[in-house]
User: Fold this.
Amino acid sequence: MLANIETGRRDSDGVRRRELSIDELVVLAVVLDISPIHLLGLPDSAEPGTKLQLTPELAFSDSELLLEWFRGQTALPQSDSRQFYSAALQRMPADEGQQAIADLTRSVLQDRAAALSESFNSEMAATLEKINAAVQSGASPEELAALLRPGETGPK
Assistant:
């Protein structure tokens, strides 16, 4: 198996492959007397900036983040963190669940804060457009002040 991995096994078309099956990963971990999870991340000897390509669009150079993700402890930055932590909570012993609950709560709060911030920015942009239009049309100070009051739509 090791020779096949090192030289690149040939697939059914004769092309050399470099991938490992899950079965091969487990056997290799047993032979090396380490956890299979430690074969999945970047080696400690990796050059700074080396990335592990998870998908064609997704690569990471933070080996600690990758190991935490493989262990089910941390969501990847681009992932749906709510889904990740919800699934993690379902599979965790109760005493370990507190950290996952805290992470899920943080994730939900961050998502909500981002949505509120986006909504606020959108409303402010619309209000600024109204103010600019009112200034250009010669609105009075009272009319401009009315634009800043909740529920006001501007000069009549």
Notes: The first strand starts at residue 9 and ends at 10. The mean pLDDT is 80. The helical segments are 2-7, 22-32, 37-40, 63-70, 81-91, 97-136, 141-148.
